Amino acid sequence: MKKLLIVLALIAAPMAQAVEPSEILPDPAQEARAREISKGLRCLVCRNESIDDSNADLARDLRVLVRERITAGDSNKEVVEFVVDRYGEYVLLRPLASGSNLVLYIIGPVALLAALGIGFIYLRGRRRPAGQVPDGLSAAEAARLKEIMKD
Predict the structure, then answer these.
(1) Is the pTM higher than 0.70?
(2) Residue 130 above 70 pLDDT?
């Protein structure tokens, strides 16, 4: 039983959030807003972790910044805009589908469709119609084959 608990604790340990008790806001509604905003912000050190899940110092600074902006009375949108203005759009785990990012969202499916189209055309071009398959060797080819085989 102890071994099972140890294994479960080791599995659950990476899932524990990195928010420290000193960072938690006293108002539960504000803390819930901070957690919701933090889920959408990327840790710039860890890359594909949210700032809530990261133990990096920069992630901690971002968590504190988000909570400061909420305490100052900013809306969720204003907090996210503030962080994006300061760190760039890369800080968003789900970048906006606008501007140059729209090209990145569209180019993947377009490239896939283009590859499928090219593959289809290639395979279709390789297929021979049934009427063009020769039945056997022509008389000239048979004579040439006999000549080669004598050597």
Answers:
(1) no
(2) no
